[in-house]
Amino acid sequence: MTERLEDIANKMVAEGKGILAADESTGTIKKRFDTISLTSTEESRRDYREMLFRADAMKDYISGVILFDETLRQAARDGTPFSKIIQDAGAVPGIKVDQGAKDMALSPGEKVTEGLTGLRGRLKEYYELGARFAKWRAVITIDGPLPSWNCVKANAHALARYAALCQENGILPIVEPEVLMDGERAKHDIDRCYEVTEWTLKTVFTELYDANVMLEGMILKPNMIVPGDHSGQKASVEEVAEKTLRCLKSCVPPAVPGIAFLSGGQSDEQATAHLSAMNAMGQLPWKLTYSYGRALQTAALNAWGGKMENEAAGQRAFNHRARMNSLAATGRWSETEEKKAA
Ligand code: 5MM
């Protein structure tokens, strides 16, 4: 029997659990492996993902894993499909279905995410392979007068068309409109991030409504409200938490069961501290949790270093980060917890 989208959503934002974004495309995982001087091959990518998916954290703190096409089709060294390892840990396997943010025609410096052509057929195949949710990431760049309405509107429209196709095929859509905080062009202050994120989210929810997307059967994956990396501005944890919540409350209907943040280039500890502060601020209309890539993986990648003999060390680092974020998802993380465990 097909699972209800609402049930998949509630499982993915279950108390104290969050999502592991392990959907790096071949180009991105190569960049990550370059930092530990490891050659990216099908085998090294498999070994790295196996180290993560067999860690204890999977059972306790991870509700879903976003995979790249290659990984959903891959098996562990003993032949067990990764999708089965994830399911056996009690988590939901998911799949990144966008085909990347590409230069937008006649909109210099902006990107539009592609991948709608043939998506219905791909979703049907991914369902057969075990995926029960999908992810599509739109990228919005702030730079002087950018983003343009053309960029915000086109990306929001594509997200809505993707989400509708997912729901038609029994797959829960994670809708990810990312207003970038990293990169050399990110010189904007926190209030500009607020303004652009608000504009983007309001446009996305209008497009989702027009596309008949059922809000109860989706998860939003937004950025937090933070200053750009190259702004020279520092915001306190309280300011980030307060502005992010204010922005989300003005844009995200309570029918949405959960919001799972991206980390976007924040340090591991910042991403955890911000999430915890928001959850400690009292009753919210939706669950607030993590769908981190870098902020869940960087410490594990470094501890593993591409060596079989470091597998346990990599898993310890991943277990620790996942536990800290689980505490944050219920507003109970503290620096004392962080240091105690380290
Ligand atoms: C894990 O990184 C994801 C895939 O990136 P590419 O498509 O560029 O290979 C990315 O979509 C990720 O799911 C989100 O951006 C969140 O990751 P962070 O690292 O920002 O938490």
From TrEMBL:
Enzyme Commission code: 4.1.2.13
UniProt KW keywords: Glycolysis, Lyase
Entries under PROSITE patterns matching the protein: ALDOLASE_CLASS_I
Reaction equation(s) it catalyzes: beta-D-fructose 1,6-bisphosphate = D-glyceraldehyde 3-phosphate + dihydroxyacetone phosphate
Top class in the EC scheme: lyase
A biological process term (GO) from this entry: glycolytic process
Domain of life: Bacteria
Gene3D superfamilies, per the entry: Aldolase class I
InterPro entries for this protein: Aldolase_I_AS (IPR029768), Aldolase_TIM (IPR013785), FBA_I (IPR000741)
Pathway annotation: Carbohydrate degradation; glycolysis; D-glyceraldehyde 3-phosphate and glycerone phosphate from D-glucose: step 4/4
Molecular functions (GO terms): fructose-bisphosphate aldolase activity
Family classification: Belongs to the class I fructose-bisphosphate aldolase family.
Name of the protein in its database record: Fructose-bisphosphate aldolase
Organism: Afifella marina DSM 2698
Top-level taxonomy: Bacteria, Pseudomonadati, Pseudomonadota, Alphaproteobacteria, Hyphomicrobiales
